[in-house]
Amino acid sequence: MCAMQTPEKIRNFAIIAHIDHGKSTLADRLIQICGGLSAREMTEQVLDTMELERERGITIKAQTVRLNYTADNGETYVLNLMDTPGHVDFAYEVSRSLAACEGSLLVVDASQGVEAQTLANVYKAIDNDHEIISVLNKIDLPAAEPAQVRQQIEDVVGLDASDAVECSAKTGEGIHEVLEALVHRLPAPKGDADAPLKALLVDSWYDAYLGVVILVRIIDGVLKKGQKVKMMAAGTEHLVERVGVFTPKVTPVEALGPGEIGFLTAAIKEVADTHVGDTITDVKNPVATPLAGFKPVRSVVFCGLFPADAADYEHLRESLKKLRLNDASFEFEPETSAALGFGFRCGFLGLLHLEIIQQRLAREFDLDLITTAPSVVYRVHMNKGEVRELHNPADMPDPVYISHIEEPWIEATILTPDEYLGGILKLCQDKRGEQQQLTYAGSRAMLVYLLPLNEVVYDFYDRLKSISRGYASFDYHVADYRQGDLVKMTILVNGESIDALSIMVHRSKADAKGRALCARLKDLIPRALFKIPIQAAIGGKIIARETISAMRKDVTAKCYGGDVSRKRKLLDKQKKGKKRMRTFGKVDIPHEAFIAALKMDDR
């Protein structure tokens, strides 16, 4: 068992960087050199435990590991490392991890330089009063330019990079210097072991054997096995059954003291009882004031998830509950649709977050799902002064009662090589963007744009990557709400409104979007024995139409010779039958048509 450490010998730090700059590989090398795992136990991206993380090569969940390192001065230090995600959709994971640490390793790819998410994560670290150590990774690459990247860090980020550590997480070169910088340049945590217990709840997840596992950072006091603790925000009391740390293996300890990061279990059945950012204290000797906690997470993108087989509804509900246990930034509530039946309206932090949840439901819970159009939260101002939040376009009130609608706008930061700037400027203009800033760092342009979020959630990121051949990087945060000329566009198939395909669009783009969506559905809906009209409508006005022609059965095939009126009679009979069929016939829209229609490229 690990003994409790004195705060002076502890270093708590997060590894922050843009996507694919080598955070997880650097964490692997630190674990290997500090002896956290033996050579036989080491794998690549050892902290990326989820199958999707390994497959995509990205970090989705922040992970913690405790390492022991004996420095050149002979002193042994405890390093609490937090490997964080790089993608903008998982920024909430990053902010939680930073709140539990005193310092950060800022990893910058020596061949790529500073990217948009590098900036975003640095500002988060500065907001948390972190000491930041710059690390230039991938110096073994032929394209590495450490001197230029140092200058870029100083110009773009505003940090002094003269003492930046150069290393290669892949080969292990320079890792010793990174460890020495960690123990000598990062501050030790402060805390009083004799004060009442005050611990920050950093994260929680569900374990099938242990129940809810809570990751905590001890600020003051001591957390021991057998202690009765209270969650101050939730108001619940629990008996601590187990206290431990991740080395990265689960290792039990007697107690956790000030400055330490570890976990506890207390037979908690519901993660709903463990609010991230809550303060944990002793029942007998509580603290007077709780910690400030974290800002509550706000979902940015909403969409409906419906089971392809209606019998899977309860299975979907249980699966969503289990995912919610592991992901505090994901939310859901039941909803019904005339076209798709019973399902759930789900909130996400972005499209990648949506995609990851969808794939986890398919893989881990074997669910076949239909996803409705992603939508953002609109504020609908009614004539009587009431303000409603609109998550689903199908729920929009009658326009007669609406004064105006506001939509969310984001501030986007885009870094791109100079040669792709023209195409990116045109893309932002097409998306109703407003340019705020254009500066240069060497041959790279940094653009700051205000953009409406509903223009970004569909295909902005894909098109940005396509225009820039993958070299542009993108980061954003929600800026404010603005009034917009927005309308609800409804799709009618054979005269019936399909609520799952209802979308909110800007009036200036409604015609083009309506035509594109009708044309797309024409290719996706199979032909029937009668004509099927597909229409896009705003209110009672049809703005676009396509018609799927009927399949024609040859009813005259058995007429050999004879008078032409025999054939005419059969054809007239068929015509009447088709007319009746069109009135009573039901059009079955295949499930894949919903998803394919919404991945519409409106170029």
Keywords, separated by commas or semicolons:
single chain, 603 residues, alpha+beta, Rossmann fold, Elongation Factor Tu (Ef-tu), domain 3, Alpha-Beta Plaits, 5 domains, 8-stranded antiparallel β-sheet, 6-stranded mixed β-sheet, 14 helices, 31 strands, 26% helix, 34% strand
Description:
The chain is of the alpha+beta class and 603 residues long. Helix content is 26%, strand content 34%. It has 14 helices and 31 strands. An eight-stranded antiparallel β-sheet has the order 11-10-16-7-8-15-12-13. The protein has a six-stranded mixed β-sheet with strand order 2-3-1-4-5-6, sandwiched between helices. It is globular. The chain starts with 9 loop residues before the first strand and ends in a 5-residue tail after the last helix.
CATH topology group of the largest domain = Rossmann fold
- Can you summarize the main beta sheet? 8 strands, antiparallel
Helix content: 25-40%
CA-based gyration radius: 29 Å
Poorly predicted runs: 45-56
How many helical elements? Answer: 14
In total, the number of domains comes to 5
Question: How many beta-strand elements?
Answer: 31
**Shape assignment:** globular
Oligomer description: single chain
The CATH homologous superfamily of the largest domain is called P-loop containing nucleotide triphosphate hydrolases
Average pLDDT, rounded to a whole number, is 77
Rounded to the nearest angstrom, the distance between the terminal CA atoms is 61 Å
> How large is the share of residues in beta strands?
25-35%
CATH architecture of the largest domain: 3-Layer(aba) Sandwich
Which CATH class of the largest domain? Alpha Beta
Write out the strand line-up for the largest beta sheet, numbering strands in chain order. 11-10-16-7-8-15-12-13
Structural class: alpha+beta
